[in-house]
């Protein structure tokens, strides 16, 4: 997925998400307004019925309104009519004398302040009551009444679902990007592996042609040199193939290693000798500092050998000038350490996070003079994991790199 396409996709999704939020907010406000209107209509309808029933009762002439009602029955009548209108709430009820500006009755005297400002005020003049005063039945409801709570829940649910969709969208983009990166790395791996194998094949083929020349075949020194070249290139191909096969096998969760007591210092010497010709051709040198005593480690010989080989080979390949490699072994407490240090190009902090990933290769821009197929360090990490070991990297661009494998002793 190209960068510009990702930018357009994210922009469109953001615009769509913002639009949905705005539409939802507008719709929610409309829902609030409609709910309030319906609530007010229902209350007015219920109170019309209450007043109608009250007007059907003729109070004794001259009776003061304060003594004209059974207020408990008035409360019950209002609650009953509200319930029939679909409102399951118990309001505060008050009978207000408009001329005297005082309450003749309040079902909850502590909330008379709510009654004074309540918009649910209904004029009422008891039939048979002789008075020039204007009376009102006033209702006060809880601030967060039911319709508004339901509308708020719709908004919260919409925002939650929008958040879930956004999360899934981001995860999908990351998955697509990772899949594309893996596909690109696999293609590079196939290309690099092809070049890696073609080089020793070409070298062996050329050496065989030279050996077929009768004049060279009779020259013992030349014949020995070409046979040595064939052996070295054959060993190189064997390591390449073995690394790929073993790395593939290690992906199987049922894979197991064959442990035995190994003299790590002897293995380091063996690996070092295999690079003699390569280093000689580049005027390089490989130093060893084998300080581990005793040098015995219980591990898999094949994989430990290949691991050290890969680390040394990696250091040589990424040394643009004269290679200088230092392989050391030592013990620190209950840990057995194997370290491979080079003085090459080094690795940036950004690349250090990915160097142990399969098929990953450190970018060198448009320069492709470093051979490899991005599986060596991944193999090293797999071997370390199988031995309950850890791999650490210390590196700075232009200052070289040091890979340290720490085994439980």
Main traits of this protein?
rod-shaped; 2 domains; 4-stranded antiparallel β-sheet; alpha+beta; 11 helices; Heat Shock Protein 90; 409 residues; 11 strands
CATH homologous superfamily heading of the largest domain: Histidine kinase-like ATPase, C-terminal domain
What quaternary form is this?
single chain
What structural category do the secondary elements indicate? alpha+beta
Helix content: 40-55%
Number of domains: 2
| CATH class category name of the largest domain | Alpha Beta
| CATH fold title of the largest domain | Heat Shock Protein 90
**Continuous helix count:** 11
Distance between the termini: 47 Å
Summarize the structure.
This protein has 11 helices and 11 strands. It is an alpha+beta fold.
Describe this structure in words.
The chain is of the alpha+beta class and 409 residues long. The chain has 2 domains: 3-143; 256-408, 2-Layer Sandwich (Heat Shock Protein 90). Helix content is 55%, strand content 16%. It has helices at residues 3-55, 71-84, 112-117, 146-212, 214-217, 220-250, 264-274, 276-281, 301-317, 349-352, 376-386; strands at residues 92-97, 102-106, 120-124, 135-140, 260-263, 285-290, 296-299, 324-332, 335-341, 390-395, 401-408. Strands 6-8-9-11-10 form a 5-stranded mixed β-sheet. A 4-stranded antiparallel β-sheet has the order 2-1-4-3. A two-stranded antiparallel sheet has the order 5-7. β8 and β9 form a beta hairpin. α1 (3-55) packs across α2 (71-84) and α1 runs antiparallel to α4. It is rod-shaped. It starts with a helix and ends with a strand. Residues 58-62 have low confidence and may be disordered.
């Amino acid at each position: 997925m190209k960068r510009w396409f990702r930018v357009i996709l994210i922009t469109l999704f953001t615009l769509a998400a913002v639009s949905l939020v705005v539409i939802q907010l507008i719709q929610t406000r409309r829902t609030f307004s409609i709910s309030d209107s319906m609530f007010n209509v229902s209350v007015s309808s219920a109170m019309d019925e209450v007043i109608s029933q009250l007007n059907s009762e003729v109070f004794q002439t001259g009776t003061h309104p304060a003594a004209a009602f059974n207020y408990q029955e008035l409360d019950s009548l209002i609650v009953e009519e509200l319930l029939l209108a679909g409102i399951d709430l118990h309001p505060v009820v008050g009978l207000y004398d408009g001329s005297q500006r005082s309450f003749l009755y309040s079902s909850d005297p502590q909330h008379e302040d709510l009654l004074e400002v309540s918009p649910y005020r209904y004029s009422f003049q008891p039939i048979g009551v002789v008075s020039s005063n204007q009376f009102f039945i006033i209702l006060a409801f809880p601030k967060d009444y039911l319709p508004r709570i339901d509308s708020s829940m719709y908004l919260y649910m919409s925002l939650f679902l929008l958040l879930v969709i956004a999360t899934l969208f981001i995860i999908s983009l990351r998955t697509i990007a990772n899949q594309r990166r893996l596909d690109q790395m696999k293609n590079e791996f196939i290309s690099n592996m092809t070049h890696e194998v073609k080089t020793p094949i070409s070298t062996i083929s050329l050496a065989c042609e030279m050996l077929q020349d009768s004049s060279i075949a009779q020259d013992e020194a030349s014949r020995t040199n070409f046979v040595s070249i064939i052996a070295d290139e054959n060993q190189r191909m064997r390591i390449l193939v073995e690394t790929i096969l073993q790395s593939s096998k290690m992906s199987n969760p049922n894979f197991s290693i064959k442990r035995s007591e190994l003299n790590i210092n002897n293995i380091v010497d063996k690996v070092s000798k295999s690079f003699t010709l390569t280093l000689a051709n580049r005027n390089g040198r490989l130093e060893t500092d084998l300080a581990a005593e005793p040098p015995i480690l219980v591990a898999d010989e094949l994989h430990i050998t290949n691991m050290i080989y890969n680390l040394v080979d990696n250091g040589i390949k990424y040394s643009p000038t004269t290679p200088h490699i230092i392989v050391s072994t030592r013990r620190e407490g209950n840990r057995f350490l194997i370290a491979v240090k080079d003085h090459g190009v080094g690795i940036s902090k950004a690349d250090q996070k990915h160097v142990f990933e399969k098929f990953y290769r450190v970018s060198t821009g448009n320069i492709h003079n470093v051979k490899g197929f991005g599986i060596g360090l991944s193999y090293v990490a797999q071997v370390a994991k199988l031995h309950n070991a850890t791999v650490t990297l210390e590196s700075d661009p232009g200052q070289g790199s040091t890979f340290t494998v720490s085994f439980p002793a």
